[in-house]
Amino acid sequence: MKTAPTSAPRTDVQEIITNRIILALENGVTPWKKPWNAAHGAPRNYRSKHVYTGINALLLGMLPYDQPYYLTYKQAQELGGQVRRGEKGMPVVFWKVSKKEDAQGKEKKVAFLQYSTVFNIAQIDGVEWKLPEPSSREHTPRQAAERIMAGYADGPRIQYLGSEAYYRTSTDTVTLPEASRFHSAEDFYLTAFHELVHSTGHGKRLNRPTLTEKASFGSATYAKEELVAELGAAFLSNTAGLDLAVTENNTAAYIESWLQALRNDKTLIISAASQAQKALNHILGITPGYEASEAGAE
């Protein structure tokens, strides 16, 4: 059995991933609101223990497997296993950085988007899996969500009033309705996280162009910033262990707006997921020990 290619032209891998997200949306599923199994943790590589982040966490979290452990075809072979015939893997992307000289002879770094294909351990035979016991939480998901909000060290001022939720750059404030006005506690925290992710783009924090540049409602820049906030809110909710299945369903118009944005820009979902991961890291005070959005697929 031949292994899947480990790299492809940039547009190819972006199209593969975008089409998977589009298919989910066309079936009425908002993939970033489909959390991974909180009892077993985020998707990760079985051998290296690397926890997938950004778009890779989103893609693997969409899959219907009980265990969040994955291997490349080669890794499965090295453990004495074999991917079952006919099983289909999932691409995970990573940036490969190389150096080259520009026209003036100055050295610069160039990043190339590549991917590997991984398979869930449920798709692999011949390995005696040694799986850790599910870790017990010291805090309930709602307590964890409160700790995330309180732990945002340089975060904006939060005020509770009115019936609308929004982030205002000029005053660096997040305005939220009282929690009692939401359908569920999960809806409240998801909304709060959405606005807090917006705040990470402020010039004094991550200085994200999609927030700092003036963009009209419905523009490509506006759509990307909203997608960053949507993904970041989902990533934070999953980190807290919130059950997003109980949150209110998205309207058909909402889903259609994302479909249109994704169809118009094949680079959107990967870029937005990368920015959402950076926002999560900022809110949680995490300094990644790697360059780019994913430190290799293995």
If you had to describe this structure to a student in words, what would you say it looks like?
With 298 residues, the protein is of the alpha/beta class. It folds into 2 domains: 10-125, no CATH class; 141-284, no CATH class. Helix content is 38%, strand content 16%. It has helices at 10-26, 54-61, 73-78, 141-150, 185-200, 209-212, 220-240, 252-264, 268-284, and strands at 44-45, 69-72, 82-83, 90-101, 107-120, 124-125, 157-160, 166-168, 173-176. A 4-stranded mixed sheet has the order 1-2-5-4. It has a 3-stranded mixed sheet with strand order 7-9-8, with helices on one face. Helix 4 packs across helix 7 (220-240) and helix 7 (220-240) packs across helix 9. 34% of the residues are buried. Residues 1-11 and 290-298 have low confidence and may be disordered.
Largest sheet geometry: 4 strands, mixed
- Briefly note the structural class of the backbone: alpha/beta
Calculate the terminal CA-CA distance, rounded to whole Å. Answer: 20 Å
Shape: globular
Short description:
The chain is of the alpha/beta class and 298 residues long. Helices cover 38% and strands 16% of the residues.
Give structural attributes.
38% helix; 298 residues; 3-stranded mixed β-sheet; 4-stranded mixed β-sheet; 2 domains; 9 helices
Helix and strand topology:
Blueprint: H1 10-26, E1 44-45, H2 54-61, E2 69-72, H3 73-78, E3 82-83, E4 90-101, E5 107-120, E6 124-125, H4 141-150, E7 157-160, E8 166-168, E9 173-176, H5 185-200, H6 209-212, H7 220-240, H8 252-264, H9 268-284
Parallel strand pairs: 1-2, 7-9
Antiparallel strand pairs: 2-5, 3-6, 4-5, 8-9
Helix pairs in contact: 1-8, 4-5, 4-7, 5-7, 5-9, 7-9
